[in-house]
Design brief:
Length: about 290
């Protein structure tokens, strides 16, 4: 579930979206048997890898082990840490992750997934924490296959961590130049003169019906001023519409980065947009071969 969390930070510790007083967290608590720990955490890490790679983000893993103020049996901690090490060895290879001795939670060891911002600061994003104490405190039990009653283990899991921090990492990672599917506005429409506004409105309607986020500038400003306005906001595609485009039902495309695609049929341009949304492409399509 998505939780709203409030945290009273000390003076001077607030930092943009990276550290705020109110944030949202994708918080999950899974109860399972001890022999399920390895497979379950492996699956969680696979999900995290898929999500992070979809956004084009890189990350590192860190294992935090038993602290001085730990609760529970030492042998249970040892077994849990061994399980987590086997998972990390399998995912990243021996030595492919950090070990933070003594920094686990008092209730169990944990794996933190960390990312760096544009100036090299490291931030915790996802976390996977084993908890032996909550099932004990609530006297939770389950009936095992042999009919005996046993105590489950709980996993605290968050993949995004703080949504606000995750958005901050995305903004810095892409420097505001988002892939097409992530851009707040994906297409800007520029009618060259007022007599082209009618066709521009048709284009806008067709794009919106296709689920594409689009805005148009119908003002009397000259074409270069309109284009400059959309470029300022780093929109992936700017459509230039004049007599030729209106007559042929095409669009001329100014691709972010100053490439051009001329005389692209409107339906074909919509297909280009849909393809990038469906595939979560990180790179813009900047060529058209009709």
């Amino acid at each position: 579930e998505t939780q709203v969390i409030h945290r009273r930070e000390k003076s001077g510790e607030l930092n943009g979206l990276f550290r705020v007083q109110m944030f949202h967290q994708d918080d999950d608590h899974t109860f399972l048997t001890e022999d399920m720990i390895e497979d379950e955490i492996g699956d969680i890490m696979d999900i995290a890898k898929y999500i992070y790679e979809t956004f084009g983000l890189t990350y590192s893993a860190e294992l935090s082990t038993r602290p001085d103020d730990f609760m529970g049996a030492p042998e249970l901690w040892d077994a849990a840490e061994d399980s987590l090490k086997r998972i990390l060895d399998k995912k990243y290879g021996e030595g492919g992750y950090e070990i933070n001795e003594g920094d686990g939670a008092f209730y169990g060891p944990k794996i933190d997934l960390k990312m760096k911002d544009c100036i090299g600061r490291e931030w915790q994003m996802g976390t996977i924490q084993l908890d032996f104490q909550l099932p004990l405190n609530f006297d939770l039990r389950y009936v095992a296959q042999d009919g005996s009653q046993k105590r489950p283990v709980m996993i605290h899991r968050a993949i995004f961590g703080s949504f606000e921090r995750f958005i901050g990492i995305l903004i810095e990672n892409f420097k505001g130049v988002f892939p097409f599917w992530m851009s707040p506005f994906q297409v800007g429409v520029v009618p060259i003169r007022p007599e082209h506004n009618e066709y521009a409105a048709e284009v806008v309607e067709a794009l919106r019906e296709a689920g594409i986020r689009v805005e148009a500038d119908y003002s009397d400003e000259n074409m270069k001023t309109k284009i400059k306005g959309f470029k300022k906001y780093k929109e992936p595609y700017i459509l230039i519409l004049g007599d030729k485009e209106a007559e042929e039902k095409t669009v001329s495309v100014n691709v972010r980065g100053n490439k051009q695609m001329n005389s692209v049929p409107l339906d074909a341009f919509i297909d280009i947009c849909k393809k990038q949304i469906k595939e979560h492409s990180l790179e813009l399509i900047d060529t058209y071969e009709g």
